[in-house]
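User: Okay, second chain of the day. Same drill as before: sequence in, structure tokens out.
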Amino acid sequence: MGDRERVARGVVRRRHRRAREPRLARGLSVPVSCRHGVAAALFAVAATAGWGWLHTELRASHPEADGVIESSPAAVTLTYTTAVLLRLSSAAVWRAGGDGAAVAAGKLAHLSDDRPDVLVLPLSERLGTGAYTVTWTTAGPDGHRIHGEFDFHVDLRFAETPVPQGDAGAGSDMQAAGGGSESGFPFGRAFQRFALYVGIMGLLGTVTLRFLVLGRFARTGASRKAVCAAEHRALLVGGLGSGMLLALLPVRLLRRAAAFFPDDPLGNLFAVVAGTPWAAGWWLQLAGALLATGGLLVAAKGGARPAGWRIAALGALLLPLVPVLSGHGWSDSPRALSAVATYLHVVAAGGWVGGLLCLLCAALPALRGNGGRKAPHPPGPAAMVGAFSRVAQVAVALLLVTGGIKVWIHIGSPSDLWTTEWGRSLLAKDAIVAGVLALGFYNWRFASPALADSTRPGRLRGSALIELALGAAAVAATSHLVAQPLS
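Assistant: Same drill. Structure tokens below.
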């Protein structure tokens, strides 16, 4: 009987606590479906981590790079360190000092023994004496585009009609004609990835504010009017983020097709949206952005009903998989650890930087418009900022842990930090992040407590805006970092 009485009393106490909890706060708590969504996303990343191999490089070629051959080859053969995707592979052979036309150009074919790591380009004409350049483009199983070029010479001792060798200056013209490389536009590629990150963080910040910050704020006894006003303002931030992601979809697709097929990108759109992790990430961006947009529209019309917010949260939690599948997170080893760390790193950054954006653009302005600043005691700006600070502390801790894991995976030795482009970019990013952390500590330790003094309401706002600007700079540095080779 004693045990039954204790169990019954525990049930009664839990019911009383739930009855005392404001209904609005219960509606703003993290839904079970969202927690299951995070678990499902992490499980999917880990479960598919065995898909494909790691970084692909050209291992050998015939003719050899900088080699001299005494007869015209029937074909150019390229051997890679991993299997490659035939439909995304192309090559061309250019004659030095020629008229800019390729001797042979087109898609490559597998050799007769069907080796997936060896490609061959049949030559459409016999090569005469002279210098030639081979330009090639392909993709490994991870879907990442790789490209390169090399030179070789043909020396026909008994050639009937030798082809005169061009001057050395013609080589640069041939490389420009045959390169077709998106690396010639680093700013455009970095800006595209920056916009992708901003859109994802805007949505993650909106969801974080709604479920984690406003939920805790509502439990302090905040008015329903103030919380609903903050929700509606956050909907605008989330809508801008989802709209940016939808607008980026055709841009990413066209740039991808142009990178592999510069002569006919529109005719090869379907070739780049299937069979690779990049393609899976593109479709996930489409699905996540549509889910988030639909959820936000339902939330805007549904009032206090949380169904739309849950749909939006599910879409937002799918979107961090896009950087995993289109960046180094899917190419590093061990892949499962790298992919999970990348996913959590993006989620944490969205919760912190995106949440700070929503705090400044949605939550605090909503309080000012609904008497929050005039309140002589909590709930008010101090309670709202305090609720966000707890979320930010967890996000910062997760960022530091996952960032450390990524550095451990990428850096083979400490000297890589200053001898490689990736390492130098990482140091620049870390310097910016250190500034963000310093400002965040100042806001948490000094500026936030000052909110209790109504004579200094702008102290936090100014420093928080600087923190947000540095956070945007850190995102821009990350956009440049992930585009750099690891060695």
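The longest strand covers residues 130-139.

User: Thanks, on to the next one.
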